[in-house]
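ERR on first pass: missing label on line 2. Operator R.T. fixed the label and resubmitted. Corrected input:
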Amino acid sequence: MFLIGLSPDIVYHSLLATEPNPEAAPLVLAGVLVSLVFIYLASKLGGELSQLANLPPVLGELVGGVIVGVSALHLLVFPETGAVAGDSVVVTILQQIAGLSPESSSEVFASFSEVVSVLAELGVIILLFEIGLESDLRELQKVGSRAAIVAVVGVVVPFVAGTAGLMLIFGMPTIPAVFAGAALTATSIGITSKVLSELGQLKSTEGQIIVGAAVIDDVLGIIVLAVVASLAKTGEVDVTNLIYLIISATAFLLGSIFLGKFFNKSFVAIAEKLQTRGNLVIPALTFAFSMAFLANVIHLEAILGAFAAGLVLDETDKRKELDQQILPIADILVPIFFVSVGARVDLSVLNPTSAVNRQGLVIAAFLIVVAIIGKVITGWAVFGKEKVNRLAIGIGMIPRGEVGLVFAGIGAASGVLDKPLQAAIIIMVILTTFIAPPLLRFAFQGEEEADKADLATANNQ
Amino acid sequence: MFLIGLSPDIVYHSLLATEPNPEAAPLVLAGVLVSLVFIYLASKLGGELSQLANLPPVLGELVGGVIVGVSALHLLVFPETGAVAGDSVVVTILQQIAGLSPESSSEVFASFSEVVSVLAELGVIILLFEIGLESDLRELQKVGSRAAIVAVVGVVVPFVAGTAGLMLIFGMPTIPAVFAGAALTATSIGITSKVLSELGQLKSTEGQIIVGAAVIDDVLGIIVLAVVASLAKTGEVDVTNLIYLIISATAFLLGSIFLGKFFNKSFVAIAEKLQTRGNLVIPALTFAFSMAFLANVIHLEAILGAFAAGLVLDETDKRKELDQQILPIADILVPIFFVSVGARVDLSVLNPTSAVNRQGLVIAAFLIVVAIIGKVITGWAVFGKEKVNRLAIGIGMIPRGEVGLVFAGIGAASGVLDKPLQAAIIIMVILTTFIAPPLLRFAFQGEEEADKADLATANNQ
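pass 2 clean. output:
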């Protein structure tokens, strides 16, 4: 009886009857479709309002995500942040109008959330591929040493100041203090590069220094995370793994760029030989996904592989054509990432009626000051005779974004961080993420004023 | 210790430690990335070779799918077709180089396969959206009654001839014979429309009749399936549900086109007001996904909703711009669908050393003859004074594709079909799917000859 009126999809998925739950499959698709509709509505509403307010659209997408996410409407919630099927409005919709049974709800919720999560990850992979395509390898090499300085200063200063402050001012034990200090080191390359791109500043010297520094920072962040996590878990550092990580990260980035110079020509030759649809975009994504996979398996981040792939293909004659074709693909995938980041942010840590949160808010205030100052000063670490917008560089390094959440997550999982410190780190991540886009626009708008201030500082020294 | 060297993704996903298996998440992404690389390689190799052999590229993508799929290399296998983690080369790769533990293998395999399945479904949704955009509503309305005749004849003739033949020639009982007869009625709109598009024949009268008939056939197929499945399960037909299905399908298609005429103007107005990236493609996909969801929840197929959305937006001034932006999106998503269809085909049913298969092959030979003749003659059901390529229309209706597999699947699940009959239906599906693209190209190439033959037939009658 129940088969009457079922769409063929249902049956297709139960082919040979080995699927644990044949009812689930078309509902997973339905769940993904509704989630995407909510994500697109949130991203466009947020992005457009942000644009009208003369703020970077990506900020609006993040806020749109917060509104549809776990903090407000519950249209988009994820099992990883503790949500269950009953918390998801999408599940409720499927139960009300698509005949989802309560027994299958958890399974369907887990499945479509997983798909949306992977789509978001593909989104940030495409974003970094696009940023790689828009970046100029020669320009990056030119700013390489300056970017490295910015990255190193931006890791060392917040780490030392944060750890010392927590121990001296708040009297915290070493390990949680070190952990929270480490959480201050990250920079979200996704958010920063998206804002730069929106401001048309990606190809400026400042833009290239920021992107270069953010890439190096991502690698440094992975190393810091490994050290701190091992310290938190065993009380000592696993040196062998540490060396492996440093060598593989360096080898990957340099190797992929070096080998890329040879691959360039084969890529163009292949794309020109292919005659069927997608002759350019399919080989390009095959390369990008392979590199992302490679980065992923050597324990780097997939997005670093995609960025390297974009850098390599930027050097080819096909660049412009490829840029244009990646554009709509990025347009539909990237918002999934930003809205998801926003949706995972739980604003309830800001509620001051809870004692834990009040304690957290005080620590958070300290962490935020260190987080902002520790990154803003990196701009003044830039050497060279060329006049650069030092304030913009420093501000570009501020957002912790999803990388910061990683530290909060590992801290929660390993039990190193008590509740107030956890809340403080999350508040710091939220604030730095949301404050950086408008500040960055301001820093570039007030370019002349900043330069004057810069000169004044230099004269005072 | 194990945290050293883990990518932040891992930890991000274990945020708050509620994820059942934090190790799994980045490996799911890795599995999706490798699967996509295999899919793209298979689709491009197959598509290009097919093109070189002067065959439609989509045939090559299907064959490429068969080669990477369950029948040969096992690079792409799906749990729904009975594969377990140990059958998947992707799982082996993840175990060898990405540190996937044997305990997590099943979970990771299920998760990344689910994501790839949904990506394939999004691929066919985008394909039908694109076909809708390329189709002309006025042209479709003009051919509407002729398309309806083709669809009805193409359902009735194979159903009656197949059922009668199986009962009279092979002495089968009524219910399995009716079921196998029903499996002969389907037409895969995906494969047919893709070939038409590749041949540049989508906008021809023949192309529009075929697409229109395939859409109607899809709706009829869902109704036939519902009737047969209920017959197989309870021995009688649930009339209430049947009426609901017929009314909702008709209301959906007509209603969406009617309402679409009003929505058109709002869509253009919205797209023109939006100033951020994706101002055209995001509203378009929001609409397409909403319609696909709506179709899905009223137990139609999601692809019918996407097709209706494309038809509606085809009427707007933004059409050309939208066409161009959907192109690369379709280029990266559609091959996932065709390669997946190929990958799910199990060619072992063709192995004549098994007695069941030998029996199946004999029945298959009969089914194939009915399947081809029953659809080819639909071309001659087309009335009107306009001269049309009747052979091409008939051939366009031949491929059963994924829709045929649905019938095999439901038959296997409900126990109505014995092994030889199951195998026979699958063989019929494979052959009609793979034979149609080259035949269709031939029919359009030999257009003049076909017209002559057509005239000769007409004169003989």
